[in-house]
Amino acid sequence: MLQRKRHKHQSHRFCKKELDEYMELLWYLQERHGQNMKDYLADLNSDWDPAIGEILKKQGYLEETDTELKFTEKGYNFARQLIRSHRLAERLLTDVLDMKIDQAEAGACEFEHIIVPEIVDAICTLLGHPKVCPHGMPIPESACCKEVRRSVKTATKNLTELEAGQDARVAYINTQSNERMHQLTQMGIQPGSKIRVHQTYPALVVRIDSTQIALDEVVARDILVWE
């Protein structure tokens, strides 16, 4: 996912989109390696231009001491919103428009730079407040995710809410477990799959094509569907 962040370093003024992409790169690295960027930026070679760091510090996005380089609160919130927009765009493009992940990645890269937070929240609500992107990475929450009351605008529901005989289409799998995601995919349960609830008691049994599958309730809760 980091390949798209690479730029050929030239003596030019960096445009906003380039600066945004470097903020995303720092977020990705922070997720993997920790908050102190000095621990790993020196190893990036051509992926990182020190001039970018100076610009981001001047803009108030980064702060540096002798031993640490970190996001400021302003920088953290800005990068967080970029990542949220990007990962929700990936979910929208893969789950609703049935695009392949590599195609969705390219579209999401453009989406994140132009969309406003209010529209991002509306998309989040439409999708049922997914927790992870198609790559299994966490989607940062917004206030819309924290409301206890379920919004009437939410288009998805949990598989466990369906009754016997109901048909639905899988919207997304809400899990950070790669093993569980792989198991469900092997069963044919993946975004876009048509699914019918065969029975709900004593065990939840669903039908995918001509195959019946019994699902543990804990696993079934991770499956969000459109009716």
Tell me about this structure.
Mean pLDDT is 82; it is low at 1-12. This protein has 227 residues and is of the alpha+beta class. The protein is elongated and about 60 Å long. A hairpin with a 2-residue loop joins strand 6 and strand 7 (211-215). Helix content is 41%, strand content 15%.
List the helices and strands and how they pair.
Blueprint (H helix, E strand, L loop, with lengths): L15 H18 L16 H9 L3 E3 L4 E3 L1 H24 L4 H14 L2 H11 L15 H4 L10 E2 L8 E7 L4 H9 L7 E6 L4 E5 L2 E5 L1 H4 L2 E4 L1
Antiparallel strand pairs: 1-2, 3-8, 4-5, 4-8, 5-6, 6-7
Helix pairs in contact: 1-3, 3-4, 3-5
CATH C-level name of the largest domain: Mainly Alpha
Overall residue-averaged pLDDT value: 82
What percent of the residues sit in helical stretches (DSSP H or I)? 40-55%
Physical arrangement of strands within the biggest beta sheet: 3-8-4-5-6-7
Supply the number of structural domains: 2
- What is the β-strand count? 8
Assembly type of the shown chains?
single chain
Percentage of residues in DSSP E strands: 15-25%
In CATH terms, the superfamily of the largest domain is Winged helix-like DNA-binding domain superfamily/Winged helix DNA-binding domain
Shape: elongated
Helix count from the secondary structure assignment: 8
- Residue stretches low in confidence (pLDDT < 50, at least 5 long) are 1-12
How does CATH name the architecture of the largest domain?
A: Orthogonal Bundle
What is Rg?
Answer: 20 Å
CATH fold topology of the largest domain:
Arc Repressor Mutant, subunit A
Distance between the termini: 32 Å
Helix-strand makeup class? alpha+beta
